[in-house]
Amino acid sequence: MKIKELLAKKSVVQYILYAVSLAGIVADILFLIVDGSDQTFTQGCFLFVLIGSCLGLLDFFFDYGGLCAWGAALCYIIGCGFHLSEALPSVSDLWNGVNFIGGNQEAAIAFGICFLAVALILTVLNFFARKKKDAA
């Protein structure tokens, strides 16, 4: 199948999913660059978010019957869980106004919100939106 034919069959939802997956990869790389040496960084979060984003991109080009969508959602849930479990003690210092644990609290909050937003958008659109164009 040629690229032009492949892209002609995609709906607007598929393009949104593609853009969100790319944003997830960019955010994950920024997470490594900005927060890589900090206490709030976890390798598990980085790997699962990267795998989830790649599965989202794979879903754009190939049809595996929803397997990529399930895999991406599961990877994002696990990655966000890793991030929140590692960042929450540092963020609680910010809430309490102390510096007991340390770490980059602002980056932890920003990346946590970003990863959760990407996970939410990917999951909701993958499971509840129409991904194929209607034949007209």
The tally of helices reads 5
Mean pLDDT: 79
- Shape field: elongated
Total number of strands = 0
Low-confidence stretches: none
- N-C termini distance: 20 Å
Largest sheet: none
Order of helices and strands: HHHHH
In percent, how much strand structure appears in the residues? under 5%
Estimate percent helicity. over 70%
* Class from helix and strand fractions: mainly alpha
- Rg, please? 17 Å
SSE blueprint:
Elements: H1 3-8, H2 12-35, H3 43-61, H4 67-96, H5 105-128
Please characterize this protein's 3D structure.
- There is one protein chain.
- The chain has 136 residues and is mainly alpha-helical.
- It has 5 helices and no strands.
- It has helices spanning 3-8, 12-35, 43-61, 67-96, 105-128.
- Helix 2 (12-35) runs antiparallel to helix 5 and helix 3 (43-61) runs antiparallel to helix 4 (67-96).
Concise summary:
This protein is mainly α and 136 residues long. The protein has helices spanning 3-8, 12-35, 43-61, 67-96, 105-128.
